[in-house]
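ok here's F-box domain-containing protein, seq below lol
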Amino acid sequence: MNNLPLEVKLDILKFLNFDQLFILQQINFYFKLLIEKNCEKLAKEEFYSISIVDLKKYEYLIWKFGLIELKENKKEYFPLQLWNKFNYKIGMFLFNNLNNGKTLKEKNWQTIIYKQIPLFLYINEPEQEFAIRLIKKDYFRPSRQLVKIPNNPKTMEEVNFIYYWLQRLFSSTFEYSEFNSVFNPEFINLIFEENGQYLNIKSGVLQGFEAKNQINAINFVKEYLKKEDIENYNRPRDNNWFMRFS
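and the structure came out like this:
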């Protein structure tokens, strides 16, 4: 396949779905660059919505709707079970070989660990235990996925895990989003070497409190969602604010 003309390679890639393209990116550096350069022409993973949730508040809802089985009287196992629930998407081969052909500088990743730079910035309530909630685009039976991602990675393996999922998210499309927390620009710039990554979200809302958090939210929307049409609603009485973008 390496000897085929570029146009033929692209025609072949157009027959692959998102998961197949993603696996190819991890195991072949040449095709990784080719897919990234032509990503707009190739398949994307489609979701209805994305949001960053607080597991401590979401735990009851997960149990109620049966998204995960909690061991009786052992709620301390909850985060680990949740993490492992969707690891089937990753596969141990990819997880252990994410560094193959990768150009990211190890120094940047070590900086994330050494300085304990958080992946998420809260814009609502502090001390959250973060997870990413994804709702698959399916008009008949939408499927919900929760991915627990460490906010302060302590090992290179955890940074690899975060890098994997961020790659998937930044390569997907979303109809809607609702954020009470946002991704930290400093973390994103380090892990992707300021490579101009952004989330492909059609519309959504952010809500939080305090003016400094609102500034973080506006910067996130402009820089990582590439949105300029932003509506702000402030409630001075309780110091809360609401933001809509499209």
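fwiw The first strand starts at residue 45 and ends at 54. kinda neat tbh
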